[in-house]
Structure formats: structure tokens, C-alpha cells
Amino acid sequence: MFKIVEKEALNLNVSRMKLYAPYIAAKSLPGQFVILRVDKNGERIPLTVFDYDKTNGTIDIIYQKVGMTTLKLDKKNKGDVIEDVVGPLGKPTNIKGFKKVMIISGGVGSAIACPVAKAFKESGADVEFISGFRNKDLIILQDKMKKITSKCIIVTDDGSNGKKGLVTNILSDKLKKNSSYDLIFAVGPIPMMNAVCNITKNYNIKAVVSMTSIMIDGTGMCGGCRLSVGGKVKFACIDGPDFDGHTVDFEEAAVRNTAFKDEEKLSKEKYCNLFKGV
Amino acid sequence: MINKSKFKEPIQLLGKEERRTGFKEVEFTLTDENAVKESLRCLNCKSSPCAKGCPVGIDIPKFIKCVSQGLISEAYDVICKSNFLPSICGRVCSQEKQCEARCVKGKIGDPVAIGRLEKYVADKMIYCFQKREVKTLKESKKIAVIGSGPSGLTCAGELGHKGYKVDVFEALHTPGGVLAYGIPAFRLPRSVLESEIKGLKEIGVRIFTNMVIGKTLSIDDLFNKGYNAVYIATGAGLPKFMELPGEGLAGVCSANEFLTRINLMKAYDPKFDTPIKFPKKVVVVGGGNVAIDAARSAVRLGAEKVSVIYRRGESDMPARKEEIFHAREEGVEFVFFKTPIEFFGENGILKGVKCACMKQEGKDNLGRSIVIPISEEKIYLEADMAIISVGNKVNRLLCESETDLSFDKNNRIIADKITTRTSRKYVYAGGDAVTGAATVILAMEAGKRAANQIDKDLSSNA
Fold this sequence. Notes:
The complex is a heterodimer. Chain A contains eight helices and 15 strands.
């Protein structure tokens, strides 16, 4: 059982929870994730470790209310417990040996991008950050990102935050002026990561993407999270979640991620109906 | 008083209709009357060929004699001397390849139903587990067991009975390893597994779930926490894929994934949240027990057509004969001498499997058929789900995190077969993590061996 020690809404759809999980906190590194099961009948879902506090034994997770499990999770409040949390899983992001890094995040992917950007910064790299959201109401972690680096651009698809644009357009403009980056780290929706990698390929800049796949155990046992990377089968849970973006088959990954979309939609509707009129 | 019948005593099976709609155990436990009758078929051979066929050397004639005299508790003690979890082995061992294969009775009819008798004894005794004597605690020496599958549970039980404080670390949220996520309830009811685990807890064994050793804690951490020895029984849980075109399509999954959704997550039950596809036409690739388990589970999800395709012939199938028989009864179709070469889809979703036809070309040194494709000849099977069940490898997770230990190139832990010692002092390993995917009984045997060695090594160093 894992106790919720803090809960904060970051916007209407996204929240942060601080959980007491001392073993996981002690071992967590940027880029890793946990698998969580809300209650005894729950499903296991992967969630990024956004932050960790080794002294107080806590980890922070950020979730978007998209399906039944995240809605169920959101019903829990400070002082409540979560049935199972296991981790830290996956390989931490490789931070070492980069001088100039561009971090690109889309939407809730910023929850992964933040600790990774911070780690690059702390390792002495020059870090730039481009983050994109659909509109200003969906922006999360703005202050955090700006605190990590002053070279932070936040754009919205509709321009409602005063800066209209797509992360890929900003990236292209920047690279046209100066393409001397060691690494582009991208995390967000699959089409966005794919588009970023199509750009970096032209400039021959190393691109690393963080892949979120459907997982059950998160330790290499089910193979549900498998991806085609450089023509080989790789498991996001134990070989990733970070992969060389120039070798990932994004098209396949996108379809695989929607494999249960009908079932998920149904269970979400069913779950929401339960609370109608409550 | 010997029962001269050439045939095994009848056993009650769950009705076919009930099998198609639920996960209840298919084969019942022998009745008292039939168990005694069956035990009287045993000739009590002096040379005990059956015991020689048992990987852990259970004194089979002796326990069967006890059954014939109605001495169930005594029979249980005889089995437990060699096998810690008879309720499980009686159900999942391939008796027809082991003990029963050597039974003299088998030469002119059915062998004695050793597996069913083992299950009978265990089921009668399952709630009397604590009857085994627990020795006094040995100076509070602590052992960490990594993994709660058959090998880990056996080791934990043996050490617990020797008086050690034993803590088991399990990566999943439920203990049991492959017994929990892999083997379906229609072969191993969860109540059996739960009562065996309850028995372990009653002798003081603690089980910590959600602990991935190598990630949550390292082996160094375990020693720093005061454990005197560590037994690694992490199994071989990494599913193999075939690296064929279209294998990444939605609808193609490993047997591990399919079975985990059903067995561990109970996805078929609307009360549980994990999603699962209820497929109409299923192709299962493989010929082992896991393939049969997957096929029979697909039947229970309501699939209209379930085909198991295997590249060799029926006699080469590694699966238990009994399960193949039950699968056929449940309507599973077997397609032999075929192997998939491509998975077809539309918009990323599986529509069918293209297979090459194979022919036999002699036998390999293990006596299995060598098969080669017949050029040009192909068949096409329509499918909305393809389940890959071509074996499991050892997970690289531990190999990558525990660099002090020696591993071979297949990520298997290098450990002595007799002592189970690894390259690191007071770290022992056994079961599938050492041998690669093998059987439940061999994993249990390694667990027992490790327990004895740990006891010996820690006692000599007291």
C-alpha cells in the first residue's frame, strides 16, 4: 500500500501526486517510470517518475485523466492509499557526455522532459527547452521548465498563450540558424516525436525519444510494449523507454498504442456512468 | 488384492459446455474409492522404475502403498520428502514423459495414474500443511529468496522448515510467478496456489510483492539489510518472438501477455479493469504446454475457431498429452507441419497468418523430427488474434543490473548444478534462471537443493 501525501491539479485534466514509496525514491533516476495499480481490481499502468525525494522517501507522478484507470486514480486524495506501485523501471536517460542539448516536449510528455532536462543541466550541458500544448489551459509545469533553463519556449497550437506554433516549426527555425546540438531529446505524442526525428535526420543530429507503450508487468515478461527498433524487436520496459529516434518504427508504435482503444473507451464510459448523478 | 485392470480408474471431468464458459478446473480429484482402486494397480516393483523417472526421485511405490492402505498423511510425508508442492506437481508435471513413462503397467495398458494419485494425496492434505515440524530458529539467520515461482517457493519452504527467517521478493503484485501469471486456473485452481502460499506464511515466510530485484533493491542492498544468503529464482520469463513480417501488428501477442491478462489480471471478468480482446479466430503458434494453455483460454473467451499450428508432428509436441486431449475435446484444432512466415493486416490490425508447409527429414539427436519447408506450398489462415508461444528466454534485467554475478551469453546465471552456488559468495541460483525455460518440477528440485546447500554453508560457518 502506498500513501498519497500530496495532490495538486496542474490543469483541468492533469494532476500531480506525491506518494510515499521510499524504496522507489531511493533508486529513481530521470527517465524512469513506475507501474501502478489503483486497487485490487485495477489494471497495471506505467507512469513517469516526475520527481523524487530520497530524504523523505517520496516520488511524484503526473497523470492525465484519459481513461478509466487515471479517472479512478484521480478519485483518490491526500491520505488515501494506492494498492501497488513498483519501480523504478526502465533504463534511466543517458545524461553523460552531452554539451548542448535540446529538449522537446508535447503536452503531458513535459512530465518526463522536466527531470531529464534538469539532469542534463546539472551535468553541465547547455539546455534549451521547447514545449508545446494545444492551448493555454493545457499548459503544465511552465514555471518548472523556465526555472531549469532560461532558454525555454512554450508554444500553443492555437496561440492562446500569446505564442502560436508547433514545436517542430520552432525546432526547424532554430536548426536553420544553428545546428550545433549534440542531442535532441523528444517526448510527447508519437506523431510529434516522429516529426522531430524527420527533422533531426536531415541535420544528422542524434535524437533520443522516450516511448510510452502499453505494458502489463513492466519487467520484460509480457512483451506488450514491444517496438520495432532498427528492424529488431525491443521492449520499451527493459530496453527503453529511451530509444534512438532515427531507428524507431513510429507508425507501428502508433497503431500498437491504440490496440485496446475500443475496450478503453467502453470501460471509461461505463466508469463515468457510475458517477452520473452522484 | 491387486487390481489387475489394464486401464486407469475413471476420473470425472468438467462438462464440455461449462469448460467453454469458465476457468474451473477440468480434471477432478480422484474419489477415495477410485484412489484406493488405482493405487492397487501398482505392482510395487522392487527396482521402482517410476521413481527413477521422477526428476526429484519421489519414492512413488511407497506413497502409493500408503494410499492403498488409506494412510493419506503418511503418503503425503513420503512425497514431501522429495517434493515440496505436490498439489502443484500432481497437476502440471508431464507424468507421461517421466514417472508414468517407466511404469511396468504401461507396457500392456495404462500406466498407474501416479500424477492423479499425487494430486489426490495433496488435495486431501492441503490444509494440514503446518503439520510438518518447524525446527527452532537458527540464530535468526535471514535468507532472501528472489522470485516466488516454483523454485523460490520450494527454497523458501525448505529453509522455513529448517528454522531460517525467509523473505521472498516478488516483482509482480501477486506471488506465484508462472503459477500465477502463466498456468491457467483450469489446470491449477488459484485456491490451490493460495493455500500453498498460506502454508508458507504460517511457518513464518514473508512475501514482499512489488519488489524488482535489480531495480527496487540490488543484491548488495539485500546483504546490507542483513541477509546472510540470497537465492535467485527469477525464472525465464522473457517471451521469444519470431521476427517475422507483421509481427508488430495489433492482434499479435505473446502467450505470456495473453495469459497474464487472463490469469493475473482477470481481464475476462467485467469486475476487473484490464482490457482484453475477445477474439473470434485465433491462431496459436507453438506446441508446448503454454501454447495449449493459450488455445484453451481462447476457447473460454468465446472464440469461434482456435487453431494451434506446430511445425512438427503431434508426437513431437512437448505439451502434456492430457492437455492436448482436453484441448481437442474443447474444440481446439491442431494443424501440424506448418509454420508462420508472415502476419497480414489492414490498418495495422491483424487479419491472417500465412504459413509455410513443412516436411519431416529425419530426427535430431533428441529424437525430435527435423522439419524443412516444402517450397512453394503455403496456406493462409484467417485470424483476428495470433498468439506467439515459441518459448521464453531469460530476462536481461538482472544480468544488466547485477554486474558482480556471472552470466552466460543468453543471460542465464552461471551456477553450479549440484551446489547452486554462483560466482558470488552466499548467492545461489536455480530453476529456469539458470537452465533456461524448463519444467516446474526441475525448478522445485533446484530450490530444494539450494536450501540444503545454504543450510550447509551457513551452518559450517556458524
